[in-house]
From TrEMBL:
Species assigned in the record: Mesorhizobium ciceri
Membrane-spanning intervals of the chain: none
Family: Belongs to the UPF0111 family.
Protein name: DUF47 domain-containing protein
InterPro entries listed in its UniProt record: PhoU-like_sf, Put_Phosphate_transp_reg, UPF0111_domain
Length: 213
């Protein structure tokens, strides 16, 4: 009943512009992370992620302010806050990875780390595709559900890479270089958490679809 009533009222569509802007920072951060993991121009790509994370924080603040000020929102206020926060958590996790890389002055990355970079880009692009479709949830229900399922498959691939990466690290450094194992496992763990945050975004999108169709 409430959903039907909300459809009759004017909406604050600025939210969708902010969501799309944020999704672009997330894709940009993912692409920069993928480049960083190639081991070239590391300082450049680290700074790119830092700058995009700062931009994303400002957009998140705009969304939260708009939630407080808007009389009518396109969907539930709690869902709006949870969606933007889950997106922001993804780029925040990329920033944490940058901090680890800089702290330990890491210059080279395992092939499976590089592959995880590609997985992160794939997840980010799926989210960026989904965000504009939320403007007309009922029209795009099938595709939104399909995107959520694709993100789950991507996350499963990241889990496999993370597990195999840790095994390879242990074989290579487990007894001979514990510090190298510790640093490598930390980076693998953070990369996996980036993808986990995209899974959180997909779950938020699925919840919005369920509540608004």
């Amino acid at each position: 009943m409430l959903g039907w009533f909300r459809k009759l009222l004017p909406r604050e569509d600025r939210f969708f512009d902010l969501f799309e802007r944020h999704s672009r920072t997330v894709v940009g951060g993912a692409e920069a992370l993928e480049q960083l993991l190639q081991g070239r121009d590391i300082d450049l790509w680290c700074q790119k992620i830092i700058d995009l994370e700062d931009e994303a924080d400002h957009i998140t603040a705009e969304v939260l302010l708009a939630v407080r000020r808007s009389f009518i929102t396109p969907f539930d206020r709690g869902d709006i806050k949870d969606l933007i926060q889950s997106m922001d958590d993804a780029i925040d996790m990329m920033h944490k990875t940058v901090k680890t890389v800089k702290l330990f002055e890491r210059k080279e990355f395992d092939p499976l780390m590089q592959e995880m970079g590609g997985v992160i880009v794939a997840a980010a692009k799926l989210v960026a595709e989904a965000i504009p479709l939320l403007n007309k949830v009922a029209t795009h229900t099938v595709r939104l559900n399909a995107i959520a399922e694709e993100v789950m498959r991507v996350e499963s691939r990241a889990d496999d890479l993370h597990e195999q990466g840790l095994k390879d690290l242990f074989r290579k450094h487990g007894s001979s270089d514990p510090m190298a194992y510790m640093i490598g496992s930390e980076i693998y763990g953070q990369l996996e958490k980036v993808v986990d945050r995209f899974e959180d975004v997909a779950n938020e999108i699925s919840g919005i679809v369920i509540e608004n169709v």
